[in-house]
Specification:
With 155 residues, this protein is α+β, with helices and mostly antiparallel strands. The chain is built from three helices and eight strands, in the order βααββββββαβ. The chain has helices at 13-31, 38-59, 128-138; strands at 3-4, 63-66, 70-74, 79-83, 87-97, 100-108, 114-119, 143-145. The strands form two sheets. A four-stranded antiparallel β-sheet has the order 1-2-3-4, with no helix packed on it. Strands 7-6-5-8 form a four-stranded mixed β-sheet, with no helix packed on it. The longest helix is centred in the N-terminal third of the chain and has 22 residues, at 38-59. The radius of gyration is 20 Å and the shape is elongated.
């Protein structure tokens, strides 16, 4: 049976679509006036750009699950199956969302190339601690770093 360790973040991309439509409406309203307030137009364009960037970032979010032998990384219609023994590093990053820390899981894919995925564990780290224990039992050489600092460039 698979256990999900990452939060589902892809649904939040719809919030940025709604925000983008609202900002487009405001931008059109600002540009249709006789006297154009360029300062507000620039601010609206900046927030519209940020909204578009955040939409694409959340659209690329991956879901990470595991069972007794494999870790499954799934995104938009694709799924990658990784042996737990091919995971070589689990590391806390300095990025936080809603007062929860992001983690970086590094692994070797089927071609033995190094890859990584960032996950935001579910609330109360449900199943994440079991995942770390399962990886540790499958690969005793795994590096698990439960801390991070500002001079750590492997974020």
């Amino acid at each position: 049976m698979r256990y999900r360790i990452s939060s589902k973040l892809r649904w939040t991309r719809f919030m940025f679509i709604i925000l983008g439509i609202f900002l487009l409406f405001l931008l059109g309203n600002s540009l249709s006036k006789q006297v154009i307030d360029y300062e507000s137009v620039i601010v609206q364009l900046v927030f519209l750009s940020i909204s578009i960037i955040l939409y694409f970032l959340f659209d690329k979010a991956k879901t990470v699950e595991f069972d007794t032998n494999y870790m499954y990384v799934s995104g938009k219609g694709e799924e990658e199956r990784i042996l737990l023994s091919d995971v070589f590093k689990i590391k806390l990053t300095m990025t936080k969302i809603n007062n929860r820390s992001m983690w970086k899981i590094s692994y070797y894919d089927v071609n033995k190339a190094q890859k990584s995925v960032r996950v935001l564990p579910r609330w109360f780290y449900e199943n994440f601690n079991e995942f770390k224990a399962a990886v540790k039992s499958a690969n005793e050489d795994v590096t698990i770093k439960n801390f991070s600092h500002s001079f750590d460039f492997d974020q």
